[in-house]
């Protein structure tokens, strides 16, 4: 089968590899209907993370169950499933506590930009749709593997409540899903910080009531003006850089919480400001499975359409072009069809 | 009048200064019944903070209202009052949001180790007792100025809930009050990390169910064993050093929150661990006034006796000896009688 691998920064290849096989009774093999490129895939692509040449890359996929191990009882070949990017047994103490991304037996999906994928802990990880979904539903279902629950987790972590004024830092696909989450949670005002017109449009479609194009001090001043000098009730940091973190803390009101879901790279947490202003920081790797029942309902009922974040659809054979487009920010998020 | 001043690290003096005067209609002058030395007073004493020679020091006091400004309507001369170490109008947006320590018109009490103290924003800041309190009640009432609400805030920030297993890092007076707070909030197990027998005794009196004397990796291993490998549901970091912060994150379970109330000195927040394990960080300067009605009730009803943290009582004239005792950890907390 074909699967995407990374050999060095900027060096993405589609290679032939053996199809994955069941090696544990908790495994499942999925025939991938759609995969995609994550903002976090850009870290190794840009050389910010170490790369082992030839490593399969990609951790977001939806597809059809091909085969299951003997301990996987709730799924069978033919089921259409969403695969959370972090697997979990959904029964360990951390899972029961809602921290499925720290599952004692969990791991991370690899090789999601390919034709077949292996899922460990399939019983605890997967969720299935009622029958095969309509093709138009695939993009939104695919967001459930990572980007939508990650944005959702950021809003949960920031403690978004009905009536709040929420600021979202970052207009990547996660930030846009953060806007969607905050709006769904009843935020009265959702302020998207974005300089890019196409992203601003999606933000508004997702429920942003305001867009602030300025950054840094000017951005903070704009938020201050919008909030009568008070600051935001909750802030979603959806990037993972030090600039984004500083921006988030600069606009958070005293007593609020900054949610964060972007993998931190070079982030120096402003602990003195946190202390002086009682601004908390919460978040991390999204416990996707925890949110899936609720979010799958939102998607299949048509209440939300997070699939809008996919502004580019490419055949798997053009995966390298997909990486370039996301790296150059000419694409928001690229869906790959095997 | 006499008031304590600091001239350089280690140089504490009792000096004659003019009695404070009402200069704003929101001011009140308090005749101090009791003041005390705070762990945070040791930062400048030890040279960790800059010192302006001759600065009055001390921010915790209770006493009797001597005089009030024209806009102070709820208090009059003769009232016995608790003075929160950070003043607030209790009406600004931050106060209404529960972040009184970030009040737009607030400030910090100075000169609390003296005979008379000035309180700005007296109407919003002060709370009074029903009549003059019994002398035996003074120590516990004095803890309401800072140390008890600060420990309480740490437990609130860490999200302590009924049935939780809570770890308290730091066996200073704040940490001990954190133990008391966690126990009052219904924690099933409160694990105090303490190596000092007298402090362990107070921790147990305050509701600690377990004491762990080990620190660092050994301390973390002991907590892990106590929690079946899971970690604590909530952790209270009551010191402010990097070691204490690392200890706190090392024992917090995935999905939990570390509360922090010790003024951070050289703290490098372990953001990678926070992210990987979804452990939040929340807290800061305690919004004392927010908690005072509830905590004053707990004290005056005799439900709690936080005054036990005062293991040393000295006349104001011996304030310098009080600092030495706290610096050398021969005293937990020193009460000063003018």
Automatic annotation (TrEMBL), chains A, B:
The molecular function terms of the Gene Ontology recorded here are: oxidoreductase activity; zinc ion binding
Q: Cite the entry's keywords alphabetically.
A: Metal-binding, Oxidoreductase, Zinc
Cleaved signal peptide residues: none
Q: Which cofactor does it need?
A: Zn(2+)
Residues in domain Enoyl reductase (ER)? Answer: 7-336
Against SMART domains, the record matches this protein to: PKS_ER (SM00829)
Q: Where are the transmembrane segments?
A: none
Pfam families referenced in this protein's UniProt entry, alphabetically: ADH_N, ADH_zinc_N
Name the domain of life. Answer: Bacteria
Return the protein name: IMP dehydrogenase
